[in-house]
Amino acid sequence: MNHIVCLALLATLGTWSVTALGAAAVIFFKSPDTRLLNLMLGFASGVMIAASFWSLLLPAIERAQAYSATPAYLVATGGFLAGALFMWATDKIVSYARARTLRPIAKPNERFNRIVMLVLSITLHNIPEGLAVGVAFGTLKAGSSMDSLMGAVTIAVGIGLQNFPEGAAVSLPLRREGFSRKKSFLVGQASGIVEPIAGVIGAMLVVYVETILPYALSFAAGAMILVAVHELIPECQQNKDAHPYFATMGIVAGFAVMMLLDVMLG
Description:
Elements: H1 2-23, H2 25-28, H3 34-67, H4 72-102, H5 110-138, H6 146-176, H7 181-190, H8 194-208, H9 213-236, H10 246-265
Helix pairs in contact: 1-5, 1-6, 1-7, 1-8, 3-4, 3-6, 3-9, 3-10, 4-5, 4-9, 5-6, 5-8, 5-9, 6-7, 6-10
């Protein structure tokens, strides 16, 4: 099953590379195109919402019905809520870190503390995303059908797309703080390094502890739904007065693409 873990590693290295691509925006632009970022965020949220059901929750229910002594509805609900609560707890840590960045610090290293907290907040946010990708690829152990593979790939693509603005969200503020473009890029891309690590952990848990597979799938779904609904959708709708329905069409398109792939291949 080492090849499954390797696939998860490659996928999360891909999502990390998109973070690096977003961080590279600091080399070419003082600020990225807002409409493009909103469209990408909307598309990613649509993909993640659809993938949470067809590629995570539905397989979790099917596997729980087939192999688990616990009722499938309890497995799916418990795992889903656990994933959402985990993401909520992570968000609380992130919010605390962000609050620290805005708090006046009467010390010479105030600027350093602010930058550390900024990078920490984005890094913590990437942990459950890496777990979600790793779990999705870990499910291939049960049978590498084309629809299962495409489901895992689309989850990685959805998370990768929303990593682009996250990379820019680190590098661009660092540039405004006076860092060179090179240093801003290096720190920005480094914020996504936890995704390959979390992805390998998630895949190994599913591959070597098969009984937790239904829980892990629904756990990843809960984490992804919370990220999409709480963060991505509100973020992509910030400029809806200037560009009505622009980001919304991205959400619809992302959902439609994921639905099309799953139904067509399923």
